[in-house]
């Protein structure tokens, strides 16, 4: 996945260097202009403007007393962060100015184990209210400030985009869309290809692929009529072109109604666990799969 993220950030935002942190976080610098490029990204689930990022080992030593340590951290965040740039980026994502805000904090690790997440949020809230003139409102807020403190770093950031809310608008969500995008990216269907999802559920994998790789044809099968109904309702939300390239039908994946050598690629988020009753049941083994290769065009 990280290679795909890196490639997408480089190609879409002209980012030179992408720093990967852990399994799923990526840091990069990019110009905020033109803003539309950010809305085209498919791989990130969430996008934040980083106000402050400091190596935890380079932070001043924490006072032993919890509240004094939380106050020190709050002063650090309020005074040292790149607030002007981060707020400018935040506004470019369609927000008005800030009147009210809330702070959420997550603390983990051993280095600052005597600080509490709630205490950090409270002290940072007070410090920012004083420094910026904003009002704390935990429920009806314009801006959310997120603080992460662990053994690696102290981060303050502002959420810019959450893809599931921003782009999906699907009545029946399923697999996370960035994961669906990454799975489809492994195939990168070409125009004219037929791509099959033999257990399509609410169809997210194929919907995502149809939007990103137009020109191919997508067939979703499932043995549960309710799931197929969900797929159809989801695909009705798409624009006409990707919607027209999608078909759904009822079938048991163990007895596919397709000729051998008839599809170009198979994408599937396999069912497992209690929900699908397959804890001890069948699991598709390679020996059970038939070769499903290109349709002849005639
Ligand atoms: C993990 S879900 C797929 C989720 C899907 N990717 C989504 O985002 O909604 C697995 C699907 O497999 C279907 N399924 C389970 N066994 C099946 C079988 N033998 N033949 C066809 N579909 C099956 C279930 O009905 C379910 O919709």
TrEMBL record:
Annotated THUMP domain residues: 57-160
Stored SMART domains: THUMP
Source taxon at top rank: Eukaryota
Annotated localization: Cytoplasm
InterPro entries: RlmKL-like_Mtase (IPR000241), RlmKL-like_Mtase_CS (IPR053943), SAM-dependent_MTases_sf (IPR029063), THUMP_dom (IPR004114)
UniProtKB keywords: Cytoplasm, Methyltransferase, Transferase, tRNA processing
Pfam families: THUMP (PF02926), UPF0020 (PF01170)
Family matches, as SUPFAM superfamilies: S-adenosyl-L-methionine-dependent methyltransferases (SSF53335), THUMP domain-like (SSF143437)
Annotated signal peptide: none
CDD domains the UniProt entry points to: AdoMet_MTases
Name of the featured protein: THUMP domain-containing protein
